[in-house]
UniProtKB/TrEMBL annotation, chain A:
Residues 1-108 form the XPG N-terminal domain. GO terms for cellular component: mitochondrion; nucleolus; nucleoplasm. PANTHER family: FLAP ENDONUCLEASE 1, FLAP ENDONUCLEASE FAMILY MEMBER. Interacts with PCNA1 and PCNA2. Three molecules of FEN1 bind to one PCNA trimer with each molecule binding to one PCNA monomer. PCNA stimulates the nuclease activity without altering cleavage specificity. It is found in: Nucleus, Nucleolus; Nucleus, Nucleoplasm; Mitochondrion. Residues 353-363 have a biased composition (Basic and acidic residues). It is an enzyme of class 3 (hydrolase). The lineage of its organism: Eukaryota, Discoba, Heterolobosea, Tetramitia, Eutetramitia. It comes from Acrasis kona. It comes from the Eukaryota. Its main location: nucleus. This is Flap endonuclease 1. Keywords: Coiled coil, DNA damage, DNA repair, DNA replication, Endonuclease, Exonuclease, Hydrolase, Magnesium, Metal-binding, Mitochondrion, Nuclease, Nucleus, Phosphoprotein.
Automatic annotation (TrEMBL), chain B:
This protein is an auxiliary protein of DNA polymerase delta and is involved in the control of eukaryotic DNA replication by increasing the polymerase's processivity during elongation of the leading strand. It comes from Acrasis kona. GO terms for molecular function: DNA binding; DNA polymerase processivity factor activity. Residues 1-125 form the Proliferating cell nuclear antigen PCNA N-terminal domain. The lineage of its organism: Eukaryota, Discoba, Heterolobosea, Tetramitia, Eutetramitia. Keywords: DNA replication, DNA-binding, Nucleus. Residues 127-254 form the Proliferating cell nuclear antigen PCNA C-terminal domain. This is DNA sliding clamp PCNA. It is found in: Nucleus. NCBIfam families: pcna. InterPro entries: DNA_clamp_sf, Pr_cel_nuc_antig, Pr_cel_nuc_antig_C, Pr_cel_nuc_antig_CS, Pr_cel_nuc_antig_N. GO terms for cellular component: PCNA complex. Belongs to the PCNA family.
């Protein structure tokens, strides 16, 4: 799934491109969420008692609805306005990847049976997770529920990440929320990971800063992603993320890399480079200006009928959920101050400025300093305590 | 190097105490003309702008621009150790990673010293445009504080409507609804008790009371407050410390007919 090793490559080469922010800071932002990824997480994450699906009396799986319902309410309560984007038809080129996944599914199913026979719970759990797929019916149920909740749902003609990227590019939404890094390859300027945990920090990837930090163009970035390994073609054996970046910078593009790379690397038989680039550059999407995003009032009757009567959800819980949806809609009218005032620059602590300069200097001098600076930046958020040795002993809070 | 002494230490104590609920940490920007701070709350709904001019201090010295990253909660804890009539001295070295605070009691019989560690902050800086506001209201700060806490009994939001008749604060909720109207009055013996309204154009805007009530904690800093309003603009609430500086709060309004339009302008 996604681009192999891209997040590590970013952390190593341009740590400034990833910042952690409290989820609260996305107040009043529209965010396009990759629904398939999200539902998949619920299907493996939300389990009933022991190892088994969360089901209703009739034995129907309800994990995806349960998860989506509570997650969406949490986001709305934080003032975030989600848009769910569902996958359409996979591009033809993905069939290779999909075949592989099918094979893995078959293997996992066999292993799961074995584990069940042997009563090995741990293995059972592990292989179970590998057999989980989001079915068409489950996706349809999710769409139906979201619509009744008044949340905009978009059915992408092809890949959901590509559609999310289009919405970000056209300013319809602020960011894409998915774990899948290829959203960046499709041109999402801001990608949010770990949007799932309402208490935790969100990882914000900034495409512009990635290009700046790696000192490459968008076309080169796409080439690097293809070399790292994407869903649409096999990759060149022996070239990992680091070499991909190094070679593409040196030889400009994949054609140049193939011409100049050492002989031990072989281009795979199936390597339709132009068509893969096409998928990333001109994916099949609904144009942003044709999309009309509307958050409407919850359809109380419809939602109760669907979830309580149809899916046998607890009536009181759904009534509570509807109350919460209503309450969050009230606060949705609060504006953000930075939509009135422009950001004109950064306010940077003198100590941070000093450390940055020192880190840069060290980077020039040798590897040691650079890696420690990278480690520091990896620590994340804008505010962090100093970690320099020696300062802690003398500067401790003291009262005389 | 920064060295600044405030004769009235309680000014700083009250400033920090009133902003601590809004912001967790911020950079104090120090230069030869004084100390300032600009920060938004986490949800980016409001902004604080604090200015303490060099004249507020005696002595004041800052040869090089310094940006001191401070955790407001911790800073507040240390300032709690100062008595109201203590003289407060702030010191920081250009290369240091801490700020030192010294408190000296009025009769000089007690002297306390603290070192507070600085933190590293990188935050967005907003440009605040010079706006000609449609309505400007000068009123006693205690009066605004009372209005906001009264309105909070009724609901979460207050609508401020300024017309020729006066400035009306109204709120409604499940239990009751109500309004308070203030009118121009320049007749009080004490100038501080006057209410002055400058109206160029009538406006009506709605704001979250949670934030207004936090702003009103600054009423202890100044007897007077100024409210500035314009159509679909943030509200400005300003408390002045005589001629020596100010604390300004900006608050984004609630949108009307929100939803669709809202989605498009992002």
């Amino acid at each position: 799934m996604g681009i192999k090793g891209l997040s590590t490559l970013i952390a190593d080469t341009c740590p400034d491109a990833m910042k952690e922010h409290p989820i609260k800071s996305y107040f009043s932002r529209n965010i396009a969420i990759d629904a398939s990824m999200c539902m998949y997480q619920f299907l493996i994450g939300i389990r009933g008692a022991g190892i088994g699906d969360l089901t209703n009396e009739a034995g129907e799986i309800t994990s995806h609805l349960q998860g989506l319902l509570s997650r969406t309410i949490k986001l709305l309560e934080l003032g975030i306005k989600p848009v769910y984007v569902f996958d359409g038809k996979a591009p033809d080129l993905k069939s290779g990847e999909l075949d592989k996944r099918k094979e893995k599914l078959k293997e996992a199913k066999e292993e799961l049976e074995k584990a069940e026979e042997n009563g090995d719970d741990e293995a059972k759990n592990m292989y179970f997770k590998r057999t989980v797929r989001v079915t068409r019916d489950q996706a349809d149920e999710a769409k139906k529920m979201l619509k009744l909740m008044g949340i905009p749902v978009i059915e992408a003609p092809s890949e959901a990440e590509a559609q999310c990227a289009e919405l970000v590019k056209t300013g319809k939404v602020f960011a894409t929320g998915t774990e899948d890094m290829d959203a960046l390859t499709f041109g999402t300027s801001i990608l949010l990971r770990q949007l799932t945990n309402p208490e935790g920090k969100v990882r914000e990837y900034n495409l512009e800063k990635i290009l700046e930090g790696m000192d490459i163009t968008m076309d080169q970035f796409i080439d690097i992603c293809i070399l790292c390994g994407c869903d649409y073609t096999d990759s060149i054996k022996g070239i990992g993320p680091k070499k991909a970046l190094q070679y593409v910078k040196k030889y400009k593009d994949i054609e140049g890399v193939i011409k100049n790379m050492p002989a031990q690397h072989k281009v795979p038989d199936n390597f339709p480079l132009e068509r893969v680039r096409e998928i990333f550059k001109q994916p099949e999407v609904i144009k942003g200006d044709e999309v009309d995003l509307k958050w409407t009032e919850v359809d109380e009757k419809g939602l109760t009928e669907f979830l309580v009567t149809g899916k046998k959800f607890n009536e009181t819980r759904i009534a509570n959920a509807i109350d919460k949806l209503r309450a969050s809609q009230k606060q949705a009218s609060q504006g953000r101050l930075d939509s009135f005032f422009q950001v004109v620059g950064k306010s940077t602590s003198s100590t941070l400025e000093k450390n940055k300069k020192a880190a840069e200097l060290a980077k020039k001098k040798g590897k040691k300093g650079a890696s420690s600076a990278a480690a520091k930046n990896k620590a994340g958020s804008g505010t962090k305590r100093k970690r320099e040795e020696g300062s802690s002993s003398s500067k401790k809070l003291k009262k005389e | 190097m920064l060295e600044a002494t405030l004769k009235q230490g309680q000014l700083l104590k009250r400033i920090i105490d009133s902003i601590k609920e809004l912001i967790n940490d911020a950079n104090f920007d120090c230069n030869s003309s004084g100390i300032s701070l600009q920060a938004m709350d986490t949800a980016h709904i409001s902004l604080v702008h604090l200015l303490l001019r060099a004249e507020a201090f005696d002595p004041y010295r800052c040869d090089r621009t310094l940006s001191l990253g401070v955790n407001i909660t911790n800073f507040n804890k240390i300032l709690k150790c100062a008595s109201n009539d203590d003289q407060v001295t702030l010191k920081a070295n250009d290369e240091g990673d801490s700020i030192s605070l010294a408190f000296e009691s009025g009769k000089k019989e007690r002297y306390s010293e603290f070192e507070v560690k600085l933190i590293e902050i990188e935050a967005d800086q907003l440009g605040i445009p010079d706006t000609e506001y449609s309505v400007l209201v000068h009123m006693p700060s205690a009066e605004l504080k009372r209005i906001c806490s009264d309105m909070a009994i009724l609901g979460d939001t207050v609508t401020i409507t300024a017309t020729k008749e006066g400035v009306k604060f109204s709120a409604s909720g499940e239990i009751a609804s109500g309004s308070i109207t203030v009118r121009q009055d320049a007749s009080a013996d004490d100038e501080d008790d006057n209410t002055l309204i400058e109206l160029n154009e009538p406006v009506s805007l709605t704001f979250a009371l949670k934030y207004l009530n936090i702003f009103c904690k600054s009423a202890s800093l100044s007897n007077r407050v100024a409210l500035s309003l314009s159509k679909s603009s943030p509200l400005l609430v300003e408390f002045k410390f005589q001629e020596n500086g100010h604390i300004r709060y900006y608050l984004a309004p609630k949108m009307e007919n929100e939803g669709e339009e809202n989605a498009d302008d992002e």
